[in-house]
Design a protein that fits this description.
Residues 58-148 form the Rieske domain. This is Cytochrome bc1 complex Rieske iron-sulfur subunit. Its cofactor is [2Fe-2S] cluster. It is a single chain. The chain is 28% helix and 26% strand. The protein has helices at 2-30, 37-49, and strands spanning 59-63, 71-75, 78-82, 89-92, 104-106, 109-111, 118-120, 125-127, 139-142, 145-148. The chain is globular.
């Protein structure tokens, strides 16, 4: 009989400890301080009176006069072309064949120095080994400036 009394005593202690821990957790959670109405008002007021962040000015990458009609220029990692008067394209200056940087625009094509790929002024493949066109870059003309969008 003593062994059974000892076992049930242990069970009682363990169950009692578990209930006690649950009580502590509940008490800890319920003592979290809630903001007063005054602090909520201050937070709401400061959130509505904060000045909005101004959008960044578009980045000017070239002047329209820099890009010859029927040709183009390479500026950093962008190829700007003007196939016809007033029509401008922004293209990646990285060859789609093996990632070489394109180095020149001559005779109506954008040329890769590594393996001889050539691209038309609209970015389509004129001569392989490249099979994919050049990715476009989002540009726009603002006055006499070409900007990256």
């Amino acid at each position: 009989m003593r062994l059974e009394n000892l076992r049930s005593g242990r069970r009682t202690v363990l169950i009692g400890s578990g209930v006690g821990l649950i009580g502590l957790v509940v008490a800890a959670c319920s003592t979290t301080k809630k903001p007063s109405a005054a602090s909520s008002t201050v937070e709401a007021t400061s959130a509505t009176t904060a000045s909005p962040i101004a959008p960044a000015a578009p980045k000017v990458i070239a002047k329209t006069a820099q890009v010859p009609v029927g040709s183009g220029v390479i500026i950093d990692d962008i190829v700007l072309t003007q196939p016809t008067q007033g029509v401008f394209n922004g293209l990646s200056a990285i060859c789609t064949h093996q990632g070489c940087k394109l180095d020149k625009v001559t005779d109506g094509t954008i040329d890769c120095p590594c393996h001889g790929s050539k691209f038309n002024l609209d970015g389509t493949v004129a001569n392989g080994p490249a099979k994919l066109p050049l990715p476009t870059k989002s540009i726009s003309v603002q006055g006499d400036s070409i900007v990256l969008n």
